[in-house]
Each structure stands twice: as C-alpha cells, then as structure tokens.
Design goal:
It is built from 11 helices and 6 strands. It is of the alpha+beta class and 336 residues long. The longest helix is centred in the last third of the chain and has 76 residues, at 238-313. Residues 246-301 form a coiled coil. InterPro entries: Glyco_trans_2-like, Nucleotide-diphossugar_trans. This is Glycosyltransferase 2-like domain-containing protein.
Length: 336
C-alpha cells in the first residue's frame, strides 16, 4: 500500500519498533543521490530493553564488499547473499527501479522482506554502502512479528521458494545456485534455532520438503559447518540439533568474552595514553603560567623603566643640561 502511494525519488520501509537517527533520511538520500544508487545501505546497532546497544557489524559484511562502488551483485566477493542481512529498514531503494523491476513485497506474515530485498538487489546495477550508523534495531519487543514467528513458521520456506522461482524465471539460478544453497542452509538453521520448540519438527519437515524439491542431495557445501547443519536438518534428531546449538552458543559466548577482553584492554591502553597526555598537558599549563608570570614581570619592569625615563626627560636638570649634551654629541661627530 505504501509503495503504491509513494511519489519520492527514493523510498525506505521502517519498522515501528526501531529507533532511527534524526538525520537518517537526509544523510542516506544525499549519499544515494550523489552516487546515483539503485540501493543504498547503511549501518545499524541492536538495542535491548536494558538500554544496552551493540554494533551490528554483520549486517554489512566488509569481506564481501567489492573494491569499487557503486557495484552490482556480480562484483561481490564470495557468496552474493553474505554481503547484507535481507531486511528493508537499513536500505534506501530508488522507487522507479522497483516499479521497473515489478518486484513487490511477498504477501506473507513474516520473512516477507527476503524476496523483496534480494530480488531488487539482484536486478540493481548500482549498490552503495556507508559506514554511518543511522538505525537502532529493537531486539526484544514482545509480540513483534520476529518474536512470534511460530505463528507463521512456514513463511520462511515460502520466502526462499519465491526467491528461488524468481532466480529461475530471470535466468539467474544456474549462475547463483551454489551461493543460494549455501545461504539457504544458514537461513534455515537460524530459523530452527530461534523457533518455539513446539514448532521445531513441523518447521523442519517443511524445510526438508523444499530441500528435496530443490535437488540439494549430494551438494558440496563450502564449509564443514554447513554440511553438518544440512545433515542435522535432513536426518538428525531434535536432541542432536539442540546439542549442536548448545555447543555453538558456548563457542559464541567464549568468542564474545574474548572480544570483550580485547576491548577492555583497548580501553585500558587508551586510559594509560589519556593519563600520559593529561600529565603532559598539566606540564604545558604550568610552563604557560610560568611564562605568563615572567612576561607580566617584564612588562611591569618595562613600564617602570619607561616611567623613569619619562620623568628624567621632563625634569629641570635634563632640560638645563641639554646644551652641554648637544655640544658633546656634536664634538663626537666632528672627531669621527
């Protein structure tokens, strides 16, 4: 509905539970306009109810970014799906490109932005990125679509089916099939890890059907981790999957603790640097104060000297002895 009513050069789709920089549209539009971008992507933070927020570094994969900009999906390093997260609220789209492409949102309850974002991305000729953080994504809102996906658990499968059919229709599937399969496993895995446990088996069965119809049997994934996830989806027990998830979370926690220690050390090192700079600044202030006092004394002495000379110059004795001094000065000039 909003897309049909929009008239601007660019368009963005925002979630009502997120927070956005007051200058987001101005900054994003200015850069998109300057680069004549079909899609412009900016960075974001994730925020929680306790007030904490963290940079979502994974929302734009730096390792995937091409050297040149703007770029297209054909320029991306590695898997074309790994470069972004396929939601809409961190992307500015050129409206007439959407209309030309005929790509609209899929009418499903959840995961409806996957097809829209990916399809427009595959057809875009000019994609650009900025490191400006312009959005803050709410991760903990109860009742949000993201947190109630179990009510429409099939939507994630419907979304990738729509995307696959689009790639086939536009004759892109053969070129990007390997990337699609490798991305699909991670996409399915995330949904299984975060779905309400009561709906786990139902969702996994829907995923199995799609995997079989897509002809993924015997496919060589690009990592052992993806191969394991594929096997767990296709044949592992719920306990096997939960054990892997538990192990992954432990590893993630360890990695986060390691990063936290590194950040704490960086802060400590910066504190030491600040302390040294603060000391040097104090020394400089003391030197400046000392020089200011010295300058004040010299100025005072100079004023006293000038005052004394002025008194002498206006004294009766100075005026009376002027002829003698004049004669003496003249004799010196004659002698020279």
């Amino acid at each position: 509905m909003g897309l049909k009513k929009a008239t601007g050069e660019y368009i963005i789709f925002l979630d009502d539970d997120d927070v956005f920089d007051i200058h987001m549209l101005e900054k994003a539009y200015t850069e998109a306009k300057c680069k004549n971008s079909d899609i412009h992507v900016f960075r974001s933070y994730e925020i929680f109810d306790d007030g904490t927020n963290y940079p979502m570094e994974w929302s734009i994969n730096k390792d995937s970014l091409p050297e040149k900009e703007p770029f297209s999906c054909y320029d991306v390093k590695g898997n074309v799906f790994d470069i972004f997260v396929w939601w809409c609220w961190d992307k500015l789209f050129k409206r007439n490109k959407i209309i030309e492409n005929g790509i609209l949102f899929q009418e499903i309850r959840t995961s409806n932005d996957l097809f829209f974002c990916c399809a427009n991305y595959f057809l875009a000729e000019r994609v650009s990125v900025t490191d400006d953080v312009l959005a803050y994504h709410n991760m903990t809102r109860e009742g949000s679509l993201s947190n109630t996906r179990h009510l429409s658990y099939k939507c994630c499968v419907e979304a990738v089916r729509k995307l696959r059919d689009f790639l086939i229709e536009r004759e892109l599937y053969d070129h990007f099939k390997n990337d699609f399969f490798n991305y699909l496993i991670l996409f399915f895995d995330w949904h299984l890890q975060t779905i309400n446990v009561d709906f786990f088996e139902n969702l996994r069965e829907e995923m199995r059907k799609f995997i079989r119809e897509s002809g993924m049997d015997g496919f060589q994934f690009d990592s052992a981790d993806k191969t394991l996830k594929y096997e767990l989806i296709m044949s592992g027990s719920v306990k096997d999957y939960q054990d892997v998830i538990s192990q992954e979370r432990k590893m993630n926690i360890m990695e986060m603790k390691k990063k936290l220690r590194e950040k704490e050390k960086e802060v400590s090192d910066k504190d030491d640097e600040i302390s040294i700079l603060h000391h040097e600044l104090q020394v400089l202030h003391e030197k400046i104060n000392s020089l200011s006092e010295m300058n004040a004394r010299l100025l005072e002495d100079n004023n006293k000297t000038m005052h004394s000379l002025n008194n002498i110059a206006h004294s009766r004795t100075w005026k009376i002895t002027y002829p003698v001094r004049y004669v003496g000065s003249t004799i010196k000039k004659i002698i020279k």
